[in-house]
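Quick question, first post here. What does this chain look like in 3D?
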Amino acid sequence: MTVVTGGAGFIGSHLVRLLAGRGDRVRVVDRPGAPLDHLPLDRIDVAPADIRDPAAVRRALDGASVVYHLAANPQLWTRRLGDFHRVNYLGTVNVLGAALAAGARRVVHTSTESILTRAGRAGPVGATGDVPARDVVGPYCRSKWRAERYAFHLARGGAPVVVVNPTLPVGPGDRGRSPPTQMMLDFCLGRRAAYLDADLNLIDVRDVAAGTAAAAERGRPGVRYLLGAENWSVRSVFGHLAALTGLPEPRWRVPYPVALAAAYVSEFVADVFTGEVPAATVTGVKLTRRRMHFDAAASLAELGVAPRPVRESVAEAVAWFREQGWV
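> Answer (accepted):
Ran it through. Tokens below.
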């Protein structure tokens, strides 16, 4: 039995379709009430469980031979204090512990690229090397950093745990509107008259799914695999979107201090009044000060993954926005 936590999410749903399409017996574990109609329900099992509940997680993972742990809060802001810690860190402790208790022969933990950069670092970032806690930006990143540390702790003790760190996934199917998808959607809706310059590394979400599946088959326990494709700037993303949609590119570059102040105000309004994800987050703005260029060539070669051109992925994302009636 192959278990995918967060199987209804952006990366998770593509991974579930890949695994089910090749004939694996798949069980999706996602939060109770999560929409599932986009999954191949005739070919999978579903076990609703909140990963913050250890007993529910143990029941959901009973009999698992391979576990892919993707469930997390992927946003950069949450209204509930401690939510990132409870979901992203303690949830990981629960899932990985239950997977090993079930006797899983391989566990793949999904981390993130945002915890691999250090202040003042120049040049592309690879898969090796650790970043100290003091260099990790914001509560989301800190929760993912702690979760990854726990995964490596288990691996050092002999557990069959592999770690994958996707960069920013793009492409069709992001119903939860992760930050890169929301950025592109905002542009398509004419909400981006200005931009904050930053580096990005983009990869098609289906290539992330393929790399995650390959990590279970070929990955070495205790090793981190970086899943990334192409380095872009925010301005170049908007330029490509302008060519696809006919909308004008943003003309004004927002100074960093102005953007950071606006993010603090946006988060205050979200915390106190709206409860909705703010247009700008403090963590997101602070990450723009980091060198977010990545070199995943070694990881991709070991896993046998050849990512498709990101320009095509962005175009498919825009087409999917139209299919959903979002634009």
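The chain has a mean pLDDT of 96.
The chain is about 45% helix and 15% strand.
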